[in-house]
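Now produce a polypeptide, keeping tokens residue-aligned:
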Amino acid sequence: MYELDERRLYLCVGHRDDLADFLPAVLRGGVDVVQLREKVLDDEQRRVSGTLMAAICRDFGVPFIMNDSPYLAADVAADGVHVGQDDVSVALCRDVLGPDAIVGLSTHDPEEFAHSLEEPTTYRSAGPIVATPTKPGRTGTGVAYAVHCTERSDQPVFVTGAVNADNVGSLVHAGLRHFVVVRALTTAPDPYAATVSLRRALDEALANVD
């Protein structure tokens, strides 16, 4: 089982035709957790993408997470699953994947976070700290909510919401340590260079506070 405490940069990415090139590039650049977050394609297409991504991540020694479905996670030999508040329960994920799998849970407000503390998770996510098109219709929680979660969790809390090389330093100095990234890498003309830039900004900020 992978330990997540020292893993800081968590990429969520949907299916893309260049996954075989894109994923190694961002892993070389410093991404150290990967999730297939695919809300449109059917299960068979998600299974194909997940199988490819799991194999690549395994070669890099990086945990690979499937979104929403513990059954698909098991099918593709993923290291775990991430579920939201309206998805299957954390308990079911544990039943399907076992005690050593990574199971992540999204939280968006203090009540959800308080309830998550009673769940057999591996990590939690908090946010989005600002509104983002990857979470349509969901308002931003603000940085204070993510700090609240981080301070009260005995497990890593990965912060979501428009994290990029320009703001990650200020987020670290606010007290945050683990970050989910999407558009800063998935829309970059040069994903490797964008990851290196983000990772450098993150590591420099962490070096100044830890």
Observations:
- Strands lie at 9-13, 33-36, 64-67, 80-83, 102-107, 123-126, 157-159, 178-181.
- The chain has a mean pLDDT of 95.
